[in-house]
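Render this sequence as a predicted structure.
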Amino acid sequence: MSEADSPWARLACRIVRVAMARKECTYSSLVQFLASDGVEDTERSLVLRINRGSLRLSSWLHILTLMSATVPELWRSSLPARADWPGAARDVVLVELKEGGVTELSALTEQLARLGTTITEEALESHIMTGTISLALFLQLLFIVRSHSLERYVDFSDILKTADKAMA
């Protein structure tokens, strides 16, 4: 199964589209928002990344902020007033892991493997600390820590169903 065909990638795509729909934001206007913030992207490239579910968490946080979307309370202190979106992604992941009581990344990699995602502890730590974690992988972490932070964009029951599909 390709990454784009994974249940987590499909859920990531859906979450981004829900956020856009809630703000009546088109792909074209999203490209304009990004350009006004100094990020050059084409509509085609953005559509492909969103539809493949390969958008990074940092990009999604940036998009949410540009659309003036409401972000989960737990994340608010992690979002920058500056343009450090990878840093914001790192901080959001760390606050979710802390809230979920995760102290060992090795436990996460074992649980991710049960979800069909093979990643080393070193690679996971690198993605978290550099803020390069994908939205799809972040959703898996939210499932593992049983976070309800994204209920504004997706029912937790849908995250559970996605996990069931991934483990099937």
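Summary. The longest helix spans residues 7-22. The chain has a mean pLDDT of 92.
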